[in-house]
Amino acid sequence: LKSFRRILTNTGAQYPKLLGLEAASMLSLFRLLDSSGREKLNVNELMCGLMEIKQNPAQLQTATAMYESQRILCRINLLSRYLEKQFAKILGEERTGSFRKSY
Q1: Cα distance between residue 57 and residue 11, in whole Å
Q2: pLDDT classification of 81: cutoffs 50, 70, 90
Q3: pLDDT > 90: what percent of the chain?
């Protein structure tokens, strides 16, 4: 992703314009296609994604919204698990008598 961003802002700044896209849209597409989070994509994956976006720009907005929703849900789930563990510790301490209430 860093390399792709660097290309789009330096030597390859003309490519998004040639395709009729914005650099931000291309970066968003890169993030969407990088489902593994490795920040690496196959050129074919990227090109196919760019062609789809070129044919139907609204599709990127929909996919981005879905991606962001999934990301938010994952973060909520992580927070939920963390809170459950913390409450379990507190309740466990309370049951064993080691939990002290402070007033």
Answers
A1: 25
A2: very high
A3: 12
